[in-house]
From TrEMBL:
Record-given protein name: Protocadherin-20
Pfam families, A to Z: Cadherin (PF00028), Cadherin_2 (PF08266)
Membrane topology (UniProt): Single-pass type I membrane protein
Gene Ontology MF annotations: calcium ion binding
UniProt main location, coarse: membrane
Biological processes, Gene Ontology terms: homophilic cell adhesion via plasma membrane adhesion molecules
Coiled coil: none
Compartments where located: Cell membrane
CDD domains: Cadherin_repeat (cd11304)
Length: 1105
């Protein structure tokens, strides 16, 4: 690099340094960039200023007493060694290099060279103390050239190496990094048959090799000298050169070549022994032992030749070792071999013809004309006999007998001479030719005179037999047996056929083809005979393919040969086992024997051998929870006793896996249905050990279903169908049990005398084989009381009670606080006004004819809280509590009478009457504001305490929107069928006028009152304690008891009505429901203190008023 370029680079790096001195992340981190090889004391920057230390000082005076120093760690040797490379001004914080920095020494093998330092800035007079992290990035410059470890190497390569053969060499090294490191390699000169190949690794090193890119011939070029050049990415690039001398090693690829293929030697018969009569020479261009030629006589020749002649192994001199004997018309033929000295030597042969001359006579001279345009004669191999191939002319200067010459063909039985003239002959064909046996004949014509001694001469010419297309191509095998794997990739080779045609030229060029069957699966190369796959082979479809292969030559006409190919397609495990069904279903009786065989899985695999051998197993996901085992042969065994009642069906997955390598598998779903065995007795649901009693009224109609026997049999089918029998026939005339349905029907009309408890046994028997039975005792209590409906089980009552309490609380808060506080106060004012007007009008005659019903109530608080004998309902659990006489007092006032009719308990004063008027209005308003017909009517639970009973008027009102006689879906009635079935209502008859005018001391038609001054129970209760009946679960058919009755349920808190008019009351509060025939609003009453009160009977479990 020249001075200008160096200065330019220096200025560039300084600019980079100035622009890159930026603070690091945070106020105390500083980063600098420095080019390597800078001189010592090179200024980097002011650490305090670059770190903006002034902004960190709370007291500016601290900055005047700052001292700066490097932080050294006793346990960090690497960082401590970096401190020695720099020095910092203790007062000014100027940072300088302490020496020249070499990046390659400091950060060897690193792509980025970052030197980390820590500087402590502390105030000597203040509390300012900061640690500044300084990172110095050392930038690389192209100061190193690529270099090889040695300048020159020598490598050897065989001349027989193929293209692509490579010679690995050591890669160059460059200490620089990035673009300044080695970028690529080149090879010079480019004219050599070599190129350079290289591969870069992750660590930046290279694998370099010299690759052969052409053919080598040592006999042409025995060595090459090339340069491998490594270049980096600098401008200009630096290079490193490795000189490589490549020696081409010889292989024995050349035969020895004689300088002539035939030697003719004529010698006198009197030639001396050990005389060299000729020298043969053969040349071998190979090197070393591969090119050193030795000679010898061929062992395959006449026996007398080795006795007469020998040859020098090194020089090739042919030497006579025996005496020659002249024989007229005969000559000697010696076959000489030239061989190199390689481990596998190559051999060439040549012939030496030795003619022995008679030294006392002139031999004849022979002239041959081949009758062709070439030096040799030619004849078709199908030529007929006596076809001429050459013309012979004899010249003998002698005269007389020495000049008379006779000629003949001495070395061939295929040709003969026919005299054409005195000294002329023609050579004709004497036997049929076959070029495929021999295509070249060396015909020797021998001539001798008849002088004494005879002299002879010989001449040789070559006859080439010309080919005709008379040979059909023949395959090396007439039948080929080949195995090929199925699914072999297309165009892959499976075999190669070969055919020979002994003809020559075009007649011997063969083209291969397949028949139509073979073309379905394969394709054959016309020239090479390589058979490749043309379509996917599937052994499961075709396991054996037989076809013909043809070889046709290019003669005219063309001849074709054929051979048979039998291709066996071998199996590849490419088929999964296939189950006979997707889902297998098996039946197994419960309580089975362990390891019983319940079925066999069947799967098929189209493959062959081990690939088709299948083993079975349960899917691993089901090993833990399935009581079955799968044998390898597919048998399914039950591994434990199975209970159908625990689980009636098992579903799991099974696997069929072949024994191929790798193996293939398939899965199927198995369902095992567990068949029922009659191993369970019927279990009684009702009656049971805790609830086996039903209570009915003696007034229950005949054919009424009084109860239903319910059982449960966890078996299935006929094993779970239960029939019922009454064990004791003593009561069969009273109750009849349906064997199939279990219904108990009242079979006779009951009287009061039949009121007692009937206990009998019930047998439940299933229809299994053998059948299983169960037995239980059941009681039916016939009471004189009328039972209104099914008795709800205690646990259900408790649920209903909790629901009712919750609804009541919410409804009470909303209804009382919002509605009663506002609406009832306003209505009270209106009632007072209407009361005044009514009283004024009642003084006149028209007033006494008013048809409005004026009802007043006088109810004792103790009426619902006291039991007979003084027992409290809060602590006793009775179904039919006694209500003390006189606890409910009702008076009826006759409008025609001007005075009250005393009920015997005293009359109410005006204050009491006003109090009860307000209370009734409050109840009336709660009834009108509740949703009519709803099952969940709000419960009025915070009414006036004195009110503990309710009179409900349910007389038909066809003119009212809120009719008391509406059906269960009518809003005027309120309540659903369920409400009505569980309700007990004290009905107040609409005929109050009739009650008012009826004679005292007699019951009304409904039996709802006595004469004034007397209290008498309408339905006296028996003395029995029916508290335990609350826990029974009787099933009663609907009885015709009418719509007007009370329904009380006994609970832990005492006596409380369950439902009343579709509303669930709480405590001792009830809902007033009535209708007024003279008004358009059902349930609207005007109470007058002058009205009489009707005595109301106490409510009972079943009472009709």
């Amino acid at each position: 690099m020249d001075v200008v370029q160096f200065l330019s680079l220096d200025l560039f790096l300084i600019c980079v340094l100035c622009t890159c001195m930026v603070p690091g992340v945070g106020a105390k981190d500083v980063a600098y960039f420095l080019a390597e090889e800078e001189q010592a004391n090179f200024y980097l920057g002011n650490v305090a200023a670059d770190a903006d230390l002034a902004s960190e000082a709370t007291n500016p005076a601290d900055l005047n007493s700052m001292k700066y120093s490097f932080l050294t760690q006793s346990n960090n040797n690497e960082e401590n060694s970096l401190v020695s490379l720099f020095h910092i001004n203790e007062r000014q914080s100027s940072l300088y290099t302490a020496q020249q920095l070499d990046r390659e020494n400091l950060c060897e093998y690193k792509d980025e060279c970052v030197l980390e330092l820590e500087v402590i800035a502390r105030s000597t007079s203040g509390s300012l103390y900061k640690k500044i992290k300084v990172s110095i990035t050392l930038l690389d410059i192209n100061d190193n050239s690529p270099s090889f470890s040695v300048p020159s190497i020598t490598r050897d390569i065989s001349e027989g190496s193929l293209t692509g053969f490579y010679i690995p060499i050591e890669a160059a090294k460059d200490a620089d990094t990035g673009n300044f490191s080695i970028q690529y390699y080149i090879l010079e000169p480019p004219s050599s048959p070599f190129t350079v190949g290289y591969q870069e690794f992750v660590d930046g090193t290279y694998s370099v090799r010299i690759v052969l890119d052409g053919q080598l011939d040592r006999e042409t070029t025995s060595s090459y000298k090339v340069n491998v050049i490594a270049r980096d990415g600098g401008e200009p690039p630096k290079t490193g050169v490795l000189e490589v001398i490549i020696n081409v090693l010889d292989i024995n690829d050349n035969r020895p070549r004689f300088n002539t293929q035939m030697y003719n030697v004529t010698v006198n018969e009197d030639v001396a022994v050990n005389t060299t009569i000729t020298t043969v020479f053969a040349d071998d261009p190979d090197q070393g032992e591969n090119g050193r030629v030795t000679y010898k006589l061929s062992p395959n020749q006449a026996e007398k030749i080795p006795t007469l002649f020998t040859i020098d192994e090194s020089s090739g001199d042919v030497i006579i070792v025996g005496s020659l004997i002249y024989e007229p018309g005969k000559s000697y033929t010696i076959i000489v071999e030239a061989s190199d000295n390689a481990l596998q030597p190559l051999i060439s042969q040549s012939k030496v013809f030795i003619h022995v001359l008679d030294v006392h006579n002139n031999p004849p001279e022979i002239s041959i004309d081949p009758l062709s345009n070439t030096e040799d004669s030619e004849i078709l191999e199908n030529a007929i006999l006596d076809t001429a191939v050459a013309h012979i002319t004899i010249f003998d200067p002698d005269t007389g007998k020495n000049g008379i010459v006779n000629c003949s063909v001495v070395n061939s039985d295929k040709f003969t001479l026919q005299r054409f003239a005195v000294h002329e002959y023609k050579v004709v064909l004497s036997q049929a030719l076959n070029r495929e046996i021999k295509d070249r004949y060396e015909v020797t014509v021998h001539c001798h005179d008849i002088g004494t001694p005879q002299l002879n001469a010989s001449a040789m010419f070559v006859v080439h037999v010309m080919d005709i297309n008379d040979n059909t191509p023949k395959f090396t095998q007439q039948q080929y047996f080949v195995s090929v794997q199925e699914n072999k990739s297309l165009t892959s080779s499976v075999m190669q056929v070969a055919a020979n045609d002994f003809d020559n030229g075009k007649n011997a060029e063969v083209m291969f083809s397949l028949d139509s069957e073979g073309q379905k699966y394969f394709r054959i190369s016309e020239t090479s005979g390589v058979i490749t796959v043309n379509s996917v082979l599937d052994r499961e479809t075709v396991s054996q393919i037989s076809f013909s292969v043809f070889a046709a030559d290019k003669g005219s006409p063309s001849l074709t040969g054929s051979a048979q190919v039998r291709m066996i397609v071998t199996d590849v495990n490419d088929n999964k086992p296939e189950f006979m069904e997707d889902t297998f279903e098996y039946n197994l009786e419960e309580n089975n024997h362990v390891n019983i065989n319940i079925g066999v899985l069947v799967a098929n695999d189209k493959d062959d051998g081990n690939n088709s051998q299948i083993t079975y197993s349960i899917h691993p996901n089901y090993h833990a929870g399935i009581p079955f085992a799968i044998m390898p042969n597919g048998s399914i065994l039950a591994t434990q006793v199975i209970d159908r009642e625990a689980k009636a069906r098992y579903d799991f997955t099974v696997i069929a896996e072949d024994m191929g390598n790798p193996s293939l598998r398939n899965s199927a779903h198995v369902t095992v249905f567990v068949l029922d065995v009659n191993d369970n007795n019927p279990e009684f649901v009702f009656p049971n050990a805790h609830n086996n009693t039903v209570v009915i009224s003696y007034q229950t109609p005949v054919n009424t279903i009084v109860s239903t026997v319910e059982t449960r049999d966890i078996d299935e089918g006929m094993n779970s169908r239960v029939t019922y029998f009454m064990k004791d026939k003593n009561f069969s005339h009273i109750f009849k049990l349906n064997n199939l349905s279990g219904r108990i029907v009242l079979d006779k009309a009951l009287t009061v005398a039949d009121a007692k408890k009937y206990t009998f046994g019930i047998i439940a028997q299933d229809k299994g084989t053998p059948p299983r039975i169960n037995e239980i005792a059941m009681s039916i209590v016939v009471t004189t009381q009328k039972i209104g409906g099914d008795v709800t089980p205690p646990e259900v009552n408790r649920q209903y009670f909790l629901i009712a309490v919750a609804i009541s609380c919410v409804t009470a808060v909303i209804a009382i606080v919002i509605i009663l506080t506002i609406c009832l106060i306003k209505r009270a004012d209106r009632i007072k006004q209407r009361y005044s007007e009514t009283k004024d009008n009642s003084d006149g005659p028209l007033g006494r004819q008013e048809t409005r019903k004026k009802v007043s109530f006088s109810i004792d608080d103790r009426a619902m809280t006291t039991m007979p004998g003084g027992r409290s309902s809060a602590h006793e659990n009775h179904l039919y509590p006694e209500i003390p006489a006189g606890s409910i007092q009702v008076s009826l006032k006759n409008p025609d009478r001007g005075h009250e009719s005393d009920s015997g308990q005293g009359s109410l004063d005006s204050g009491d009457r006003r109090h009860h008027q307000l209370t009734s209005l409050q109840l009336h308003h709660a009834l009108l504001t509740s949703p009519s017909g709803s099952k969940n009517r709000s419960t009025v639970s915070h009414m006036s305490p004195p009110l503990s009973g309710l009179i409900t008027h349910q007389e038909a009102d066809n003119h009212s929107d809120l009719s008391g006689e509406a059906n269960t879906s009518d809003s005027g009635r309120g309540g659903s069928d369920d409400d009505l079935n569980t309700s007990c209502i004290l009905s107040y008859s609409g005929d109050f006028d009739h009650l008012a005018h009826s004679p005292r001391g007699k019951h009304t038609p409904r039996g709802s009152s006595k004469s004034a001054g007397k209290r008498e129970e309408l339905f006296p209760l028996p003395e029995h304690d029916y508290g335990q009946l609350n826990h029974m679960k009787p099933t009663l058919a609907p009885l015709s008891f009418g719509d007007r009755f009370f329904n009380y349920e006994s609970n832990q808190g005492g006596l409380s009505p369950v439902k009343f008019g579709g509303v669930s009351p709480t405590g001792n509060s009830f809902i007033l429901s009535g209708n007024d025939d003279s008004t358009t609003t059902s349930g609207s009453y005007v109470l007058d203190h002058e009205d009489d009160y009707v005595d109301v009977v106490r409510p009972s479990r079943q009472c009709i008023v």
